[in-house]
């Protein structure tokens, strides 16, 4: 966990990054900035395994970086296949971030299918709390947040101080469209979750993710039918 002194220094780096990168610097410039200020063991990449574009970008300057995969216990089989392909194809270290309870233990303690009755609590226990614990050993992390994904992400900065986790947050592909993402994956032969080709532009846990109709918000399939649009990590 970073100390108050550490956080003051990290905030100085954020201020520098805001000046140098602005609001729309290329993704590669964001990664280079991070590599100039941090050792590879000080940063992590969060990856949902919808695709491996973000890890592929980061390893160009920070090879063997830790890639955090939130193993909720509810993933699509295709997501696990993508995770395994990323581990095989890219020079990264996959870190499976596990919740405190297995799905069976959670069902026993809170009742079956908590995600349907209280999705916020389920996400808290299976994603947010485990991620917060995992990030405690780093000074910065990369996410794949993109501004076009939803209104809540429309103003996502390229670099910021993450108050919730006490470290720097980089969003290198914030300016990218979905087409730019898939074009990059195709050009560089990056592993992609096959569900992207079947109407799933945003992929989460299987029980809470549905296909999206043409023209719909890319995240409309997440927690479909509920008012919830974010797990809470990026709010």
TrEMBL record:
Pathway: Sulfur metabolism; hydrogen sulfide biosynthesis; sulfite from sulfate. GO terms for molecular function: 4 iron, 4 sulfur cluster binding; adenylyl-sulfate reductase (thioredoxin) activity; metal ion binding; phosphoadenylyl-sulfate reductase (thioredoxin) activity. Transmembrane segments: none annotated. The keyword Iron-sulfur applies. Residues 44-211 form the Phosphoadenosine phosphosulphate reductase domain. PANTHER family: PHOSPHOADENOSINE PHOSPHOSULFATE REDUCTASE. GO terms for biological process: hydrogen sulfide biosynthetic process; sulfate assimilation, phosphoadenylyl sulfate reduction by phosphoadenylyl-sulfate reductase (thioredoxin). Belongs to the PAPS reductase family. CysH subfamily. Keywords: Cytoplasm, Iron, Iron-sulfur, Metal-binding, Oxidoreductase. InterPro entries: PAPS/APS_Rdtase, PAPS_reduct_dom, Rossmann-like_a/b/a_fold. NCBIfam families: cysH, PRK02090.1. Its EC number is 1.8.4.10. Its cofactor is [4Fe-4S] cluster. This is Adenosine 5'-phosphosulfate reductase. [4Fe-4S] cluster binds at residues 122-123, 205, 208. Its main location: cytoplasm. The active site is at 231 (nucleophile). The keyword Cytoplasm applies. It catalyses: [thioredoxin]-disulfide + sulfite + AMP + 2 H(+) = adenosine 5'-phosphosulfate + [thioredoxin]-dithiol. Binds 1 [4Fe-4S] cluster per subunit. It comes from the Bacteria. Catalyzes the formation of sulfite from adenosine 5'-phosphosulfate (APS) using thioredoxin as an electron donor. One of its GO terms (cellular component) is cytoplasm. It is an enzyme of class 1 (oxidoreductase).
